[in-house]
Design goal:
Radius of gyration: 24 Å
Shape: globular
Number of strands: 14
Helix content: 40-55%
Number of helices: 16
Largest sheet: 8 strands, parallel, barrel
Strand order of the largest sheet: 5-6-7-8-10-12-13-14
Structural class: alpha/beta
């Protein structure tokens, strides 16, 4: 029995289409930069927001109307698997992602939880045999249950540390069994509310030890997925240790983990950290640490993690510019860690939301590729920093300068000539490229 009986397979119909169940800009077979859109964008559906989210908020109960909600327990988990693979097929998406508790209910004991997981993982594995949709990444939820009230790998309680490790051990085994291309760590409770009762050094050291154990176990079982850390500055703790890419990269370097991890960057988490989405992508890219992306956006008037589906074409263009300059996302992808709005409660709204997200990143890809091909930003930047390509600037870059030589140069200066940064002109140029995409 179909969970989405009124929805047929979503196909590309072009920008003039009036069909609400069609892609206007995402053409999976169209080649951009030598790769098809499907190969470049590597879209993934988030199991948690799409199949388990009930659209509740702190002020109201859930509004979501889902055909599988008439079930409970393992029956509900099985119904969600059936709905998920029907959704993947009709949307034509190549990947999906999940937390352990998204796919199977927790039991009264860890052993019982693992048995529930084994049942559902076997079902997912069977569905994957006849599906083109693969697992982009999986992870475990070490933050929702009350046992994680004081953290998981950074907990003050050694029993909780052990419990969290056992869950990750199972998660890595599941990742290997289902062929996950990555494994994500999001430290939802890896942080603190106040320093007054926190041993920060012990918590950070234990977090480093935890990650090394995960690396060792992945090698032991032959799991070769890319490890990813997903930064977030706050929520649910007041301060989380993976605040942003910069602090996360410093952590990895300090604990000798930088060769084993990259970053899964979420747009809404970037804005919560006081950065732009493209800033976090750029910082990861220039340090060789850009692994994957949680594709969403925040609300400009709200200061929390609203997880909206991406529709801002300027943002998707600048994001795809960084991804193209990165050579793509490798084993990563664009995972829609986004939920429909509380008033968008029907199953059909799930399709509309993913269509706008996929179309928005398709536009971003096409415009960004033109910017790269025409060297629009490269030429501006090259000209702006041209003083470092000759004379004293080249001496600085190539290590031939010291304070004595720089003082000698500075004392001989009679004037310093600046050139305009032309910020407004650059933004106008990007607007031209965006509008040209629709004119074409």
């Amino acid at each position: 029995m179909s969970n989405f009986p009124t929805i047929h397979n979503i196909t590309y119909e072009g920008p003039t289409s009036k069909n609400p169940y069609a892609f206007k800009f995402y053409n999976p077979e169209e080649k951009i930069g030598g790769r098809t859109m499907e190969e470049y964008l590597r879209f993934a559906v988030a199991y948690w927001h799409t199949f388990t989210e009930d659209l509740s908020d702190p002020f109201g109960v859930g509004t979501a109307s889902r055909p599988w909600d008439k079930f409970s327990g393992l029956d509900l988990a099985k119904a969600r698997v059936e709905a998920a693979f029907e959704f993947f097929e009709k949307l034509g998406v190549p990947y999906f992602c999940f937390h352990d508790v998204d796919i199977a209910p927790e039991g009264d004991t860890l052993r019982e939880s693992n048995q529930n997981l084994d049942t559902i993982v076997a079902m997912i594995k069977d569905y994957m045999k006849d599906s083109k949709t693969k697992l982009l990444w999986n992870t475990v939820n070490n933050f929702t249950h009350p046992r994680f009230v004081h953290g998981a790998a950074s907990s003050n309680n050694a029993d909780v540390f052990a419990y969290a490790a056992a869950k990750v051990k199972k998660g890595l085994e599941i990742g290997k069994e289902l062929g996950a291309e990555n494994y994500v760590f999001w430290g939802g409770r890896e942080g603190y509310e106040t320093l007054l009762n926190t041993d920060m050094k012990l918590e950070l050291d234990n977090l480093g030890r935890f990650f090394h154990m995960a690396v060792d176990y992945a090698k032991e079982i032959g799991f070769d997925g890319q490890f990813l850390i997903e930064p977030k500055p706050k929520e649910p703790t007041s301060h989380q240790y993976d605040f942003d890419v910069a602090s996360g990269y410093a952590f990895l370097q300090h604990y000798g983990l930088q060769e084993h991890f990259k970053f899964n960057i979420e747009a809404n988490h970037a804005t919560l950290a006081g950065h732009t989405f493209e800033h976090e992508l750029r910082y990861a890219r220039v340090n060789g640490m850009l692994g994957s992306v949680d594709a969403n956006q925040g609300h400009p008037l709200l200061g929390w993690d609203t997880d909206e589906f991406p529709s801002d074409l300027y943002s998707t263009t600048l994001a795809m510019y960084e991804i193209i300059k990165n050579g793509g996302l490798g084993r990563g992808g664009l995972n829609f860690d986004a939920k429909v709005r509380r008033g968008s409660f029907t199953p059909e709204d799930l399709f509309h939301a993913h269509i706008v997200g996929m179309d928005s990143f398709a536009v971003g890809l096409k415009v960004a590729q033109q910017l790269v091909d025409d060297k629009v930003l490269d030429d501006f930047i090259e000209e702006r920093y041209s003083s470092f390509t000759e004379g004293i600037g080249l001496d600085i870059v190539e290590g031939r300068a010291d304070f004595h030589k720089l003082e000698e140069h500075a004392l001989a200066l009679t004037d310093i000539n600046h050139t305009s940064g032309r910020t407004e002109f650059i933004k106008a140029t990007i607007n031209q490229y965006l509008l040209r995409a629709f004119a074409d």
